[in-house]
């Protein structure tokens, strides 16, 4: 049903602290799309106290990648649940490796467009250390932030290469408003093509 829905599907990629969540909030406010963050889905699962949630918590604390099968199951379930109310999907934090992107295409459908927020490591580190004071996230500490960045760099280039035709690179080191202005142009153009 998802494949036939014709709804826009936008993947939001970028390193930890590149501004994915911040951008998604702005897109939701203007376009009313359904925002699904795989990090949030996993944190909900951890909160639920399930065994799989506990396994995920240990991996997230180490800045690694939770097994794809588990993440994709959570993501697909959420998309199906939201489908009847949705104007389009913002998929935040997925894919995190090339194979995740390919599995999404096989099981769910193709992304309409991919937004990749680029930012320097030092800027991402400073932002996340700033957020650490209030986020309460067990992975917002200096040691885990470095590991999250390592995981990102180990996996990101092959994703961007594999999906280059659909990927729009956006400078993430500008104000959130400036990032959003660039993204508005991209979204308006995909909505017009429909
Ligand atoms: P996830 O929750 O996705 O974390 P992340 O990718 O590390 O990204 P963040 O949410 O920390 O940052 P963000 O890019 O959304 O930036 P934000 O807008 O908050 O994933 C957590 C973990 O879950 C992973 O490490 C992994 O273990 C697991 N996981 C998740 N998805 C998975 C998957 N697909 N497969 C396997 N495992 C998975 O901004 C950060 C800060 O910067 C904020 O304080 C914000 O106010 C500020 N800021 C944002 N934009 C700007 C700007 N333009 N200028 C100045 N400040 C800004």
UniProtKB/TrEMBL annotation:
Main location: cytoplasm
Enzyme class: transferase
Keywords: ATP-binding, Cytoplasm, Kinase, Nucleotide-binding, Transferase
Subcellular location field: Cytoplasm
Enzyme Commission number: 2.7.4.3
Record keyword Kinase present: yes
Annotated InterPro entries: Adenylat/UMP-CMP_kin, Adenylat_kinase_CS, P-loop_NTPase
Domain of life: Eukaryota
Name of the molecule in the record: adenylate kinase
Provenance organism: Parthenolecanium corni
Top-level taxonomy: Eukaryota, Metazoa, Ecdysozoa, Arthropoda, Hexapoda
């Amino acid at each position: 049903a998802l494949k036939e829905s014709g709804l826009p599907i936008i993947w939001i990629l970028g390193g930890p602290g590149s501004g994915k969540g911040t951008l998604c909030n702005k897109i939701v406010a203007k376009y009313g799309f359904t925002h699904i963050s795989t990090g949030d889905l996993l944190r909900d699962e951890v909160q639920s106290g399930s065994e799989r949630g506990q396994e995920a918590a240990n991996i997230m604390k180490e800045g690694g990648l939770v097994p794809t099968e588990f993440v994709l199951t959570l993501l697909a379930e959420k998309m199906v649940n939201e489908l009847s109310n949705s104007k389009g999907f913002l998929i935040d934090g997925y894919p995190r490796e090339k194979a995740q992107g390919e599995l999404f295409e096989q099981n769910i459908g193709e992304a309409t467009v991919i937004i990749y927020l680029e930012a320097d490591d030092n800027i991402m580190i400073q932002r996340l250390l700033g957020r650490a004071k209030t986020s309460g996230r067990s992975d917002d500490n200096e040691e885990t932030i470095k590991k999250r960045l390592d995981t990102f760099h180990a996996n990101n280039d092959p994703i961007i290469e594999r999906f280059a035709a659909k990927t729009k690179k956006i400078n993430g080191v500008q104000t959130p408003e400036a990032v959003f202005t660039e993204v508005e142009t991209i979204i308006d153009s995909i909505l017009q093509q429909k």
